[in-house]
Amino acid sequence: MSEIAENRQLVVPGEVLAEGMDYLPGDGAYRNQKNILSSTLGLVEFKGRLVKVIPLNGKYMPKKDDPVIGIVKEVGYNKWTLDLNGPYDAFMLVGDASDRYIDTNRDKLASIFGVGDAVICQIKKIDENLAVFVTARGPGLRKLHEGRIIHVKAAKIPRIIGKSASMVKMIKEFTGTRMFVGQNGIIWVDGGDEALAVEAVRKIEAEAHVPGLTDRMKAFLSEKTGKTFEEIEASRPSETPSTGARGFQPPVREAREFRENAGPSGEDDLFQGESE
User: Fold this and answer.
1) What is the dihedral of CA 216, 220, 221, 227, to 10 degrees?
2) What pTM was estimated for this model as a whole?
3) Domain CATH for 246
4) Largest CA distance in the chain
């Protein structure tokens, strides 16, 4: 068996990534006889025997437990409809909007979540008809009252978050902002130098396919702020393992996306914890 493509290499559909039956195709890849080929334009990633391709384009396709930001587009009698920045809208039922009881005969649902509101929520389930349901019940899940919302291509989210949340952590520390990066390509930025944080996100989005992105972002943020990466590292508080805000432990598959998504330590941080 052998690897034909290099890790993080830009590949096109149909390009051979690896040879041999010891490799297994993951997302964005498929097997043709003894070869693993790419099914999309993206960056190849090898994880042991698994070969996958991180797409550079494409709409967000919801997965159970994904942390997302939804924009309310309609208020109904007993539910809200949210735009998830993809081909499927999501529904939030009254029982998933709050930990407190909501009386639909007495409470005005628009006073809880109104049209245009941004809500940090989580994909609760996707039924057999591909209807998507989200929940705002849980630590850190809430309506956003401040800050700014930006939209990026959902396929670029892994690069914006970075390995073990390293990229989003670096942006937060250099800019002094709080951030939440939704898997659906909607990002919340608040406090500190919001404009620089947004500029950094846009730079990552534009250069996600170019090797050496982390080093370029360190140089970019250092130049903009006058701080070195070593100074940022030295100013970090000591970290201890945590299960998350108020004892919440996100599903294992989503740990990276939930963790390190808030901002400089404080009581308003959405999720705290050790990066993977």
Assistant:
1) 100
2) 0.73
3) 3.30.1370.10
4) 66
Give yes or no: residues 136 and 170 share one domain: no
Per-residue model confidence as pLDDT tens digits over 154-200 = 989 999 999 889 999 999 999 999 999 999 999 999 999 999 999 99
- Of 143, 171, 202, which residue constitutes the final position of a domain? 143
CA distances from 239 to 79, 102, 180, 189, 259 (A): 40, 39, 20, 23, 13
Q: Cβ contacts of residue 186 below 8 Å, gap of 6+?
A: 68, 69, 70, 71, 84, 85, 118, 149, 150, 151
Tally of structural domains, the chain:
3
Measured between alpha carbons, how far is 248 from 242 in angstroms, rounded to an integer? 9
Dihedral angle computed from the Cα positions of residues 259, 264, 268 and 272, in that order, rounded to the nearest 10 degrees? 30
Helix or strand (DSSP H, E) at 153: none
| Residue 125, helix vs strand vs coil | strand
Query: Domain containing 25 — which CATH number?
Result: 2.40.50.100
Measured CA to CA, the distance from residue 258 to residue 218 in angstroms comes to 23
Q: Tens digit of pLDDT for each residue in 24-42?
A: 999 889 999 999 999 988 8
Bridge partners (DSSP) of residue 179 are 189
Chain centre to alpha carbon of residue 223: 26
202: helix, strand or coil:
helix
For residue 189, give its domain range: 148-258
Q: Which of 88, 115, 143 is the last residue of a domain?
A: 143
